[in-house]
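Dear Dr. K.,

Following up on our conversation at the group meeting, I've run the structure prediction for DUF2909 domain-containing protein from Glaciecola petra. I'm pasting the input sequence below exactly as I used it, so you can double-check it against your construct before we proceed with anything downstream. Let me know if the numbering doesn't match what you have in your notebook.
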Amino acid sequence: MVIKIVLIVLLIFMVFNLFKAMMIMLKGKSTEPMSKFLGRRVIASATIMILLLIAMATGLIELNQRPY
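The predicted structure tokens came back this morning:
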């Protein structure tokens, strides 16, 4: 259950950084670079993928045996 909560928090963090970068892009001039937030988003998505692979390998989450 904890792994699912961590994944959901990371997904929310990723979407938040995406919208923050969008607001900087639309505003034009800003003191913070847009690449800062896009980099955080990429790191969050890489962390999500690694956590999913580790959770599947250790059996913390179960895969769907029949997808149809």
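Two things stood out to me. The mean pLDDT is 89. The first helix runs from residue 2 to 27.

Best regards,
J.T.
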